[in-house]
Amino acid sequence: MQSKENGENFLEYIFEHKEGLIFECSEEGEVTVDMENRGVLNRFAQRFLKQPRISHIKLEGMGSYIFMCVDGKRSVYAIGQLVHEKFGDEAEPLYERLSVYMRRLESVGFVTRMKG
Questions:
Q1: What CATH number belongs to 4-113?
Q2: What is the pLDDT of residue 100?
Q3: Ranges assigned E (strand) in 1-116
Q4: Which of 19, 56, 16, 17 has its CA nearest to residue 36?
């Protein structure tokens, strides 16, 4: 699969956890990311609707495993190989799903792209 972005192969991109991101991994391997709710609407919701200032986002199963594979050294392709080794056919279609998931982690600010 050749997922192109700006003429480059997405599978060659390398990601790292966003600087300052607070997360923990349980003994079972499930990741929980703490995300501060910022902005005018969030302040309104916190004040008047009693919404929390910090949300605890749980990544389960394969998502937690992928998140923990992100280390600032492995490419998306290399992470895919690890996912395939651990989950086998359960991960298929592997690189399509992995590319979507990595873009989602990037869009919510959990990871940043180092190369590309």
A1: 3.90.930.60
A2: 96
A3: 4-5, 8-9, 15-17, 22-25, 31-36, 54-59, 111-113
A4: 56
